[in-house]
Design brief:
This is Lipase. By secondary structure, this protein is of the alpha+beta class. The chain folds into 2 domains: 40-165, Galactose-binding domain-like (Jelly Rolls), CATH 2.60.120.260; 173-382, Rossmann fold (3-Layer(aba) Sandwich). The chain is built from 9 helices and 19 strands. It has helices spanning 5-26, 181-184, 197-203, 210-217, 245-248, 276-279, 292-313, 329-344, 368-382; strands at residues 40-42, 49-53, 60-62, 65-67, 71-72, 79-81, 87-93, 96-103, 107-112, 115-120, 123-130, 136-143, 151-158, 163-165, 173-179, 220-226, 269-273, 318-324, 350-354. Strands 1, 4, 7, 9, 10, 12 and 14 form a 7-stranded antiparallel β-sheet that branches. Strands 2, 3, 5, 6, 8, 11 and 13 form a 7-stranded antiparallel β-sheet that branches. Strands 16-15-17-18-19 form a 5-stranded parallel β-sheet, with helices on both faces. Helix 4 packs across helix 9 (368-382) and helix 7 (292-313) packs parallel to helix 8 (329-344).
Length: 388
């Protein structure tokens, strides 16, 4: 006796389910970030040579254009830095150059002649790069990790056979991005959410975050004032209430509040992306707000005051409020309230409420695809590059 239609459909459905299950288990898992991160890494096929050596005496310092919050080093040359995205540009003629570091916590990318050298936690060392072709060279050193503490960039140095040139002029506009781990680019190059601490270190690349991408597309430079877990009125989980962005923003070095800040270039555009940590975790009874609606009632005016102060610091700057809408209606409503309050003061601003990102990088953070999409939104909102 043959199978009836019911039995045949049941068998077919079971076969499909088994095939799907087999494909699920056979499908390769996303790769993990490669750890440990090598102390020194060059592009494949790089024509230049690079090595870490003990600090070398007798070299000549090379002037550089610096972007990012910094403080001087009391005991000698160099710059102390902690906020993300710190970068330096220089120009010279010669076949070799040396960069000096006192940094046991960060990753760096150094680019010149279309090639890249990456460092991880170099310590107190010089990076010696040679094998360059004779002629003019532009070099860029950029911190791409999040600093857990202040570190020192000692600068660029030349041998006797090289000649210093004035550093390249900075792009005509500067965008300041103020935010949290998403602005840092926390774990963004990972293809999975379950990352340990060393994998997060390997997968964080601030230079590929939405801020630097948008700035590059607009022909602008960027400065980042951002920190993982930080908020305006409260931090994630109510942690460390004495170190909210409201309290830390003015510091050159969050880890050394007494360090005097060096002068900074005025920003032409300010993008504030705060609020995710404020609304993204439950309130504790001792925090002072009964619920998120009450929290939102305080957050809107506080964000407006914070944004107005930033506009006072940067006269004539454009203001963008960036809201991650997936954190709930209280966050969006508070941002709309802040935007309205700024407008009522005669302070022009643009509110961008973002669609739900995939958040499939480390610990549910923005992925590379998410960062690219947000950068595209910012570029569309802020206009085309200016000639520079």
């Amino acid at each position: 006796m043959g199978w009836g239609w019911t039995e045949r459909i049941g068998i077919a459905a079971l076969a499909i389910m088994l095939a799907i299950a087999g494909a699920w288990y056979a499908w390769p898992a996303p790769p993990r970030p490669v750890t440990p991160v090598p102390a020194l890494r060059l592009d494949d096929g790089a024509a230049i040579r690079a090595r870490l050596v003990a600090p070398q005496p007798g070299l000549t310092a090379l002037a550089a254009t610096i972007t990012g919050r910094a403080a001087s080093v009391p005991s000698g040359p160099g710059l102390r830095h902690e906020w993300p995205g710190f970068h330096a540009l220089a120009r010279f003629t010669g076949t070799a150059i040396t960069l000096r570091f006192d940094d046991a916590v960060n990753r760096w990318r150094i680019t010149l002649d279309g090639q890249a050298v990456e460092l991880a936690r170099p310590g107190r060392k010089d990076l010696r790069i040679d094998g360059l072709s004779p002629g003019v060279h532009d070099i860029r050193a950029e911190k791409i990790s999040e600093s857990p503490a202040p570190a020192i960039f000692g600068g660029f140095f030349l041998d006797k056979g090289a000649a210093a040139l004035p550093p390249p002029p900075p792009p005509p506009r500067l965008i300041e991005f103020i935010g949290d781990s998403d602005t840092v680019g926390f774990g963004s190059t990972a293809q999975r959410r379950d990352c340990d601490a060393e994998e997060i270190f390997a997968a964080t690349d601030t230079s590929r975050g939405f801020g630097p991408q948008a700035a590059a597309a607009l022909g602008a430079d960027y400065r980042l004032i951002a920190r993982s877990g930080i908020g305006l009125l409260r931090n994630y989980g109510g942690a460390d209430p004495a170190h909210t962005m409201e309290r830390l923003y003015s510091l050159a070095l969050p880890g050394d509040p007494d360090a005097p800040a060096l002068p900074q270039r005025r920003a032409d555009i300010v993008v504030i992306a705060l609020g995710s940590n404020v609304f993204g975790s439950d309130l504790d009874p001792g925090e002072g707000w009964g619920d998120k609606a009450e929290l939102g009632g305080d957050f809107g005016p506080a964000l407006a005051d914070f944004a107005a102060t930033r506009l006072g610091d940067n006269p004539g700057a454009a203001m963008v409020l960036l809201a991650f809408g997936e954190y709930g209606p209280e966050l969006v409503q508070a941002h709309r309230r802040a935007s309205d309050l700024l407008s009522a003061r005669g302070l022009a601003n643009l509110l961008l409420v973002l669609d739900d990102p995939r958040r499939d990088a480390c610990l549910w953070h923005l992925s590379a695809r998410d960062h690219a999409a947000i950068a595209k939104r910012l570029v569309a909102a802020l206009g085309q590059p200016q000639p520079g």
